[in-house]
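so my prof wants the structure for this chain in the tokens format not the other one, which i didnt know existed until like an hour ago. anyway here's the sequence
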Amino acid sequence: MKLLAMLQGAAQAAQDHGSTESGPDLQGMLMHHLLDGNELEFQVLGMGPVIHLPQFDPVHIGPLTLNLSPTKHVVFLLLAAVLLLVVFIPIGRAMRTKYTDRAPSGFANAIEALVVYFRDEVVRRNIHHGADAYTGYILTLFFFILFMNLLGLVPFGATATGNFMVTGALALVTFVVTEISGMRTLGFAGYMRTIFFAPKGMGPVGTGLMLLILTPVEFLGKLTKPFALMIRLFANMLAGHTLVLSLLGLIFMFATGGAIVAGGVTIASVGVVSLIMVLELFVAFLQAYIFALLTSVFIGMIQHAH
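here's what i got, hopefully its the right format
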């Protein structure tokens, strides 16, 4: 169903953007589906509603201008948050009432196994002392990113994590949590040594020289970690959808090449895209796991700066 919706969307976008002597506007089709927008499209075979999201006047706060109008990615981000509440609130209540004296069963058992795995093998293994205080945050990151990734694979869905503003906000929150964690654990003086660092046992001249060299490196290292988180998640989710839509675009590029050629390209493209969609399902889980894992690694690194 997702593949049918994407195929129909590709055809509709190509038709909307018009065709030239060289073929349909595949670039316009790609941008139409990958970038954020102010519409929610629920069309199959040219039929279905198109919901235009409300647009608000920009809010001016001093020199800043904020546009609080909802977009397609914002809608699916909020939908992921709502789904998290719908799924996990009943499980949490069942753990406190139904499964107090026995092991959970069914879906609750699977969630418990996943939570225990993250607590023991991801959070505690990387953060060590005081790790349990960060288990809730790490798990929230994992499931929130996972749900956003999966919503991009359902019919008419959009991948909010394919927007660098979304991944940048997640990375910024992780950066703040990491630095505050380091300051609370090391104290102000210990935290400042993670920026102004010089090896012990050196003379005044050597210490000054090492501070001059290493301080910019250490400071930039703090910024590159969240930047890497932002780009890794954004690039991987965007690349998968770009590849799928590009392969679907081959169908329209070869549509005028004769029935045999067009049919062969269509069958081959749909087959390859189907395999890539299965791979994208794996990538959705993998990228959520990597983001959560690296977050715990960064917290552990700053808490144990030595």
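also thought this was worth mentioning. Confidence is low (pLDDT under 50) at residues 17-21.
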